[in-house]
Predict the structure.
Amino acid sequence: MTPEPRAPTPIDAIAEAWVETLVDLDPSVAVWIGAPSPRPGEYADHSPEGHERHAEAARRALAALEAEEPVDDTDRVTRTDLAAELRLGLELHEAEEHLRDLNVIASPAQEIREVLDLVPTATVEDWTVVAQRLANLPGALVGYAASLREGARRGVVPARRQVIEVIAQAEEFAAADGFFADFVAGAAPEGGLPPGLAADLERGAAASAAGYGALAAFLRDELLPAAAERDAVGRDRYALHSRRFLGAVVDLDETYEWGLEELRRMTEEQRETAERILPGASVEEAVAHLEADPSRKLHGTEALRRWMQETSDRAVEELARTHFDIPEPVRRLECLIAPTRTGGIYYTGPSDDFSRPGRMWWSVPEGVETFDTWRELTTVYHEGVPGHHLQIGQAVHNRARLNTWRRQLAGTSGHAEGWALYAERLMADLGRLDDPADRLGMLDGQRMRAARVVLDIGVHLGKPRPDGAGVWDADHALAFLRANVNMDDAFVRFEVNRYLGWPGQAPSYKVGQRIWEQLRDEARARAGAAFDLRAWHRAALDLGGVGLDTLRSALR
């Protein structure tokens, strides 16, 4: 299971240097990958000048990469994928996307705070770095506002809907008794906090909250009046973002039609499964029946966390015996309740040395105390094993063959989320979701992912609605998603706002799954009776993160 060490090459050296450059430009990258930083406690420069320095570094790295020839297949994958990422990043920069980088889920407005979820907090030294980071956080927000202000000056602006939603998020972080106060109140290193450090943390928390208050004021008073009324980004911008999230070029019109057919197929499979749960019942009636079943309920976040951990541990143990080679360090996955209350479920990868394990996080909304296991079993497989944790953990473990960029930073949403949806369906195919209730939970998620392929492309490209009553817009998107998911309406509204502000990301899950399954089926057809699924999984995951076009060429 441990490959033979490979001698580093000049292309590996360029990739390693690019990681060092990224860590230097944005010390938060070191936190995400669990690597040392020359400037712990600092943030990236989110100002226009900071973005230009990043672009110039990318131009130098691309030139160095293009001057080298690969010496083996590993080099060929690295050169192909890193060059594609650098070129695309420069295209996005030239399109001035950084000057309107604001949305409800994945923009600097959220990311500047989110790094605090992963910073080490075990020792006094750790909290000293946290105090430095909190002191620097307001400056990072000022630089970010400068980029948005420059975008407004040039007429390059985010949509009004996104600005309104992020104002509310920023105001929540600005509360005196909000996240930052709670965060530093939890500082409890062994031996306690020195008085001076405790005071620094309190000042940093207050300054960070005030920084988000200032961001909210800027968004409300300056950016909102200039923001775009239209949610759709149009075909050209959408194609650019689709490439960003897939690492592949797809026919958007064909993908839209495929999404409609996939949605029809998922809906019919749901209907058939509902019939197995409660003969004669609709999907809605089957869902109501399951929600009333106390045997499928968990009560309280600690019960949820414990169930997540037990389910994950069992999956690791069983799959390691059958369909996957799971390295020993990857067999540890920590399941946690997140410190935020957004309702999201997400995964964070292990540090480079596995001293920080991979983690599955559940951000439970305020007031939610009960959870349905039939809905969430497939989520544990998606975020854990054989989903994100196996995929990312195996790449991190493969240091004998892969450089740091390939192990820790490469890849796209289509590759990662596509694999996670592939993992969900695989678990159903392997009989791990034979209970019709658990299968309905999986199909509920898969139907949502198919629906958002249609919704996302439909809205942003202004395509005719499936019902023939005009073209896609935000109102129809909301009604369409409501008709295709069984979820709280606040969650549905957040999801639609997410798709409207993050073009191309939502379809990457289902499109990525489609490509993963196509590649597996092609390999099976080539090998015939000799096809070994376990070996194919190992070969695919040993590549680490890559764009889907690179994945195709490497596996073929």
The longest strand covers residues 333-337. DSSP finds 23 helices and five strands in the chain. The mean pLDDT is 95. The chain has two domains: 10-232, 244-555.
